[in-house]
Structure formats: C-alpha cells, structure tokens
Design brief:
By secondary structure, the chain is α+β, with helices and mostly antiparallel strands. 31% of the residues lie in helices and 23% in strands. Helix 7 crosses helix 9. The structure holds pyridoxal-5'-phosphate.
Length: 314
C-alpha cells in the first residue's frame, strides 16, 4: 500500500517521502512497517491524548499553543508531560526542511501492558505515534474567494452518555478508577444527579430494608450488565425480594450490603464506601449477609446448571 501523496502544486512529488513515513517512538519508519502492541492501552481503552497542528509552507501554526495544550492533556490523564516535546520533535523529523503544507496528527498513549487490565500496570512507557497528511497551500486557499461552506445539524450534547454501548473508549471510567486506586479503593461507583448509576466496570446492587435493590435501565445511563440480568433472575428464583428502582446516593450509604457485579468478577462485596464500612449499624445487617450467601450459592448453582446443560446439548 502506498500512502504517499503529492503536495498541492508540487509537480515532481518530492514531498512523497514525508507522507509515506510515520513517526513511531522517536523514529521515522515506513507507514506500512509501523507496529503497535495489541496490548497498547490506546488500542484497548482509548487511553491516550492527541494533538493536530497545521503547517503552511513548512511553518507550524501556533505550535506553542498546541504543545501547551498537549502538556495539559498529559498532566490531566497522568501521562509523563515531557511527552509534549514529542510534538515539535516529530514535526521536525517528519517535515525536515521541506516547505510542506500539511497537518500533523500526534497521539500519546499510556503504553502497552502485558495484559488487559483497567488499571494501568506500573512502569508503562508511553507510545508516541505521529503522521502527516496533506493540506492546501496558502496560495490555493487565497485563490478561493471565501471559506468553503458546509451543512450542519444540531444534536443534544451526549458526549459521552451512551453508556449502554460497551465502548472501548474507556478514558472516562479509567481516570476516576485510577483516582479511586490512589485512595486505596478497587472500584468507583458513579452517581448522577444524586442517584446511583453503576460501577467503573460493574453494576451495583444493594440490600436496603431487606430488599435487593438495583437501579433500573431507564435511569442514569449505564451498561446493561449481563450478570445484572442473571443475578436478578437468581434472586427471584430464590425468593429474595427484589426492587428495581432508582437509588439515591444517600440511601446507598445506609445500605446493609453493597454488591458490584460483572461477568468476569461475578459478585464483589463492597466492604467500605468513601472510607466508611458498609452495613455497620445498618438495620437488618444479618439479613444482608444471608441474602448475599443465597445469591452467591444461587449464582454458582445456576452457572453449574448452565454449564451442564450446554455440555449435554453440544
Ligand atoms: N458496567 C460497566 C461500566 C462495565 O464495564 C461492566 C463490565 O465490564 C458492567 C457494568 C457489567 O457488565 P457485565 O455483567 O455484562 O459484565
């Protein structure tokens, strides 16, 4: 595949080389040879930041502003801010002395771990990738009397509220999760407008007033967890009183028991919330414990039963 393009107004194609190479971790390589680990957190989680800068005749427009913004983005997501210097460096290496009309796209990801874990492993080395694309020259732009026109539509700003989509863009969840880790917590419970939504990578149940309670799918946006569905049917099959309703955050804090659920983790009992032990002094504490053990046994029984059935039918 050839990704080289010719600069506008350049009959000889001398600009081809800059466009056919990309910048990867400090080196220029042919685009077709550039490689990133499948465990790169940019690929797995969208865990990275980027910048785009425009050059006219080889001169970068507002490079300082872009480097400053990149540094701020890096600081905000906890990636080494020194990586901001990669932007002018990549631009220099990709363009050289050529008076190109081009834009540079540069992204810095948190790097590649040895496994897919939401929380980044220690000591990751950021991945830096940059590529050029061709743009019009100032002369070409000047030859048009006015800027180009486009059509537009309005849309409610739902960036990013589509949490029912199991999107790989997880930066929004990762940052609070990393913050939770800094406070010694293994999960974050998101709330919206005073109501419980879901965990960073789980759904939330609570035992309140002897009932197993979980937020409804039509409430604050959340992922429609498969284990949530499974656990609700296990609870009903085992005669546990269930209430699918909105849960005010204040009520969660008074719960006898809080559970975080997911297909991989199954059930985790939340022992403390915001530093306070869960259930201590809450009415019906023992009831919460027995509900959890019924749910746990019921879930494991259901899994075993399913495995047996699938085994027989295959
Ligand atoms: N909510 C979020 C944000 C998740 O990431 C997950 C699992 O990854 C869940 C809920 C639980 O979903 P499931 O039970 O389908 O694993």
């Amino acid at each position: 595949m050839r990704v080289g393009v010719r600069r506008v107004g350049d009959p000889g194609g001398s600009a081809e080389a800059p466009f056919s190479r990309v910048y990867m971790n400090g080196r220029l390589v042919p685009a077709v040879e550039a490689r990133v680990s499948v465990f790169d957190r940019g690929f797995l989680f969208g865990d990275g930041v980027y910048e785009v800068v425009h050059a006219f005749g080889g001169r970068w427009l507002d490079m300082n502003l872009h480097v400053g913004r990149l540094r701020k983005s890096l600081v905000a997501v906890g990636i080494d801010p020194a990586m901001a210097d990669e932007l002018p460096r990549a631009a220099r290496m990709l363009v050289g002395d050529t008076p190109l009309d081009a834009s540079i796209y540069l992204q810095v990801t948190r790097g590649a771990g040895s496994d897919r874990t939401h929380l980044p492993q220690a000591g990751l080395v950021p991945t830096v990738f940059a590529t050029l694309s061709q743009t019009e020259s100032l002369a070409a732009l000047r030859s048009t009397a006015a800027p180009p026109s486009i059509r537009a539509v309005t849309a409610p700003d739902s960036r990013w509220l589509r949490l029912e989509i199991k999107s790989i863009s997880l930066m929004g969840a990762l940052l609070p999760l990393m913050d939770a880790q800094r406070h010694g917590a293994g999960e974050v419970i998101f709330t919206r407008d005073g109501f419980v939504a879901e965990g960073g990578s789980s759904n939330i149940f609570a035992v309140i007033g002897g009932e197993l309670v979980t937020p409804p799918l039509g409430g604050p946006p959340m992922l429609h967890g498969c284990l949530r569905t499974r656990l609700l049917s296990v609870a009903i099959a085992n005669g546990i009183p269930v209430s699918v309703r909105s849960v005010p955050t204040a009520e969660l804090k008074r719960a006898t028991t809080i559970l975080s659920t997911g297909s991989r983790s199954l059930i985790r009992v939340v022992a403390s919330l915001d530093g306070e032990p869960v259930g201590v002094g809450a009415p019906g504490c023992a009831g919460g414990t027995s509900i959890v053990s019924t749910l746990w046994t019921g879930l494991l029984d259901a899994i075993e039963e399913d495995a047996r059935r699938i085994g027989h039918s295959s």
